[in-house]
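Reopening this one. Same input as before:
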Amino acid sequence: MTYNSFQTISQILVRFENEVRDNPAPNKNDPLYIDFIVESFFEHPDWYPSDYVRFHEDKNGEPIRLSVRDFLRRNSIDRSDGKREVIQLTTKASTLLDNILSEDDAIASQAFAELIHMQGYYRRRWPFVARALMTQLANKLYEQKDAQAKELAIRMQSLQSQMLVPMSKRFINTLIEQTSMARGLGTAKSVTDKISSLLEDVNDAAKQEWGEAKDLESLQADNADLRAALHNLRYELEDLQTQLQNTQDANKADGIVTFLTELNSATSGNLLDNMAISQKVITSLIKNNWQPELPEIEGIVYSVKAIVTFLYRLGLEPLKVVGAMEKVTLQDLTFVNYLGSEFDYPDQVKWVKFQSPGWRYKGEIISWAKAIECDPETFMSDMEVNQ
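Same output, byte for byte:
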């Protein structure tokens, strides 16, 4: 596996660890029973449900607190042919997942396409296949000599011991999607597609057909699957809400950036710059006890201040202060339109005076500041006049 694969697995683990902490399995032992059944039927696909029950009692010295028969039925693997198909699909999917996590892009691309096909074509089998894949992936990570891989394996085993089948399916699906995106092999599923798939899980969990009345244990297990499917759906709906809000915020920010850029364009008379300059002049005049005589002029004075204040509250920020004089080198002139003599070398120091501030909105540069070179004597005389 590549370093990037380790990073992707780690990021997904963090996400699901947080989720499981807030929404653990209703019965903390159910995930352990599920993994025991998976491991057992891979070794003995022809056994009857009662055989797995006895095997658990002989191996662990206690009865399995899970209806094996109902569990296998819910996952459509109560017959030996269904179990064998799951074993074959898991073996193939495990190889394909290894290929996605490998370094060969051509092989990874083909593996990604086949896994996507398996997810759709074998939809009823895929949740159980995903559960087995998670176990095998943890074992392969643990066999790696890399310390990071062993840590990931331990975390994955701990995570799996707290989740039911629907969530382990979503874990593997997320791993396939995120790894493929990181390698440029495919595009992310839309949230709509994810929700559609999760609705199918909810429908499957809600419409189980049984040939006989359910006992309390069967009802509790059925309810646990339905709750897990509904939780996954709720999680993706919350994700959709977040994405929609982010899209709205991004569209709003893009619209404001476009508006502010147009407002300060040459065709619009560089209104942002002129308002900043006007505000600077007005503030200086008021400090020198100037008062507007005509009511119309007074209205303009306060309108300029109100507009500038509104733009600042909106998130607009000046890059520089109008009229400010600074010592600069060539490296200091990022986002500055400099008018003056050329620099003889990068560290040469020059005095400049900023004629317009330049603007930024939430990290986006709206316009550059404008600075004109001035000599030190002019700078000193201007400083004396301003004092």
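So the earlier flakiness isn't reproducible anymore. For the record, Residues 206-214 have pLDDT under 50 and may be disordered.
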